[in-house]
Amino acid sequence: MSAWRSDELLTPPLVGKRIAILGYGSQGRAQALNLRDSGADVVVGLRDGSSRESEAQGDGLTVQAIEDAVAAADVIALLVPESAHEDLLSQKVFPIARRGAALVFAHGFTPLYTSLEFREDLQRLLVAPKAIGPELRRLYVEGRGAPALVSAEPGDLELAKAYAFALGCGRAGVLASSFREETEADLFSEQAVLCGGLPALIIAAFDTLVENGYSEEAAYFECLFEVRLIAEMMVQHGIAGMAERISDTARFGAAISGHEIVDERMREKLRGLLRSIQSGEFARAFEREREGGMARSIHWLETLRRSRIEAAHRRIAEANVLPAASPAATEAASGKATPSGEA
Ligand SMILES: NC(=O)c1ccc[n+]([C@@H]2O[C@H](COP(=O)([O-])OP(=O)(O)OC[C@H]3O[C@@H](n4cnc5c(N)ncnc54)[C@H](OP(=O)(O)O)[C@@H]3O)[C@@H](O)[C@H]2O)c1
């Protein structure tokens, strides 16, 4: 694997550059603090009445109106939710940004799918840390870093690398990618595994046990709680390394059942999901969802909140049985707890 590494945090392409961080949620806070602690010149741009203003000021950062932050910036990082990007770009960035300024995206969704005409002189940089914001910050403070994918389409790749190094990502590894690769792989993994497939499998397995007379508590521990241990083992030791470390009954059971669950029909569904992302169908569906006030996302969240596994989780959490969570898990991956259409 070829990755750029750097223990140096502030490197020449970023020296003397003013960075405007737009948004102070999950990524915004982590990136602003890491960049500032690396010696970069950072201001935070927030909309009028933002509830995060006092938090950013309390963190020792300069806060400005978005328009003022953008007007003086050489580098503008769009760290607000995707649903807000088009309005922000068309109303508060394109009319104001300096000639040749660099726009930094933490995810390639907007540059890839938007119908907006980008100003031709503006650079479009991708710096996508592979960590949620609180984790990016925690690793930096511990003297470590999260890996990141970078690209410049068009723009100065050296500046994208320097931005990633100032986030601490050079301590782990910065890899060349593209807006398309990062976005499609990221959306696919969220849907197929991380946020869609894995929770759905956990719920289905939990329901199967409960419908067959097992207690919700036992089902919860077996189907959800232990995911953490297995995920940690796979990340640390690889999937074969995990399989070497489990019991002989677990290993035999996995050997005969995993491919029965993820069979050829399921693989075909995964290929279908990927095709809908590659064709732009998913992006068009998201646009309709945004126009409709995020109704399906809200409905999904409400259904989860009312589910039996959630009730079991609440009871177990209230009984103080759960071990302390990692710092990253205690904070939301997104600064927003509830999706809404008003972003
Ligand atoms: N969450 C992650 O860890 C993660 C990981 C990798 C990549 N990313 C990417 O990072 C970017 C930011 O995501 P995020 O999860 O960090 O966002 P987030 O936490 O939801 O962002 C919240 C911030 O965005 C501001 N905001 C929301 N709507 C706005 C609007 N219409 N105009 C101006 N400001 C607005 C909020 O302003 P107020 O303060 O006024 O409420 C708040 O400061 C996205 O491109 C995302 O795909 C995120």
Task: Give a summary of the structure in a few sentences.
The chain has helices spanning 26-37, 53-58, 66-71, 82-93, 109-113, 133-141, 157-166, 179-194, 197-211, 216-225, 227-245, 248-261, 264-278, 281-291, 295-305, 308-318, 327-330; strands at 18-22, 41-46, 62-65, 75-78, 102-105, 123-129, 148-152, 174-176. It is of the alpha/beta class and 343 residues long. The protein folds into 2 domains: 12-177, 3-Layer(aba) Sandwich (Rossmann fold); 187-330, N-(1-d-carboxylethyl)-l-norvaline Dehydrogenase, domain 2 (Orthogonal Bundle), CATH 1.10.1040.
| Fraction in helix | 40-55%
- Given this structure, which CATH class of the largest domain is correct? Alpha Beta
Number of helices: 17
Radius of gyration: 22 Å
**3D shape:** globular
Give the count of structural domains: 2
SSE pattern: EHEHEHEHEHEHEHEHHHHHHHHHH
Class derived from helix and strand content: alpha/beta
| Main sheet makeup | 8 strands, mixed
Question: Within the CATH hierarchy, at the fold level, what is the topology of the largest domain?
Answer: Rossmann fold
Mean pLDDT over the residues: 93
The CATH architecture category of the largest domain equals: 3-Layer(aba) Sandwich
The overall strand count is: 8
Named once each, the bound ligands are: NADP nicotinamide-adenine-dinucleotide phosphate
Lateral strand order in the biggest sheet:
3-2-1-4-5-6-7-8
Low-confidence stretches: 332-338
* Termini gap: 39 Å
Which strand-content bin applies to the residues? 5-15%
* Corresponding CATH superfamily of the largest domain: NAD(P)-binding Rossmann-like Domain
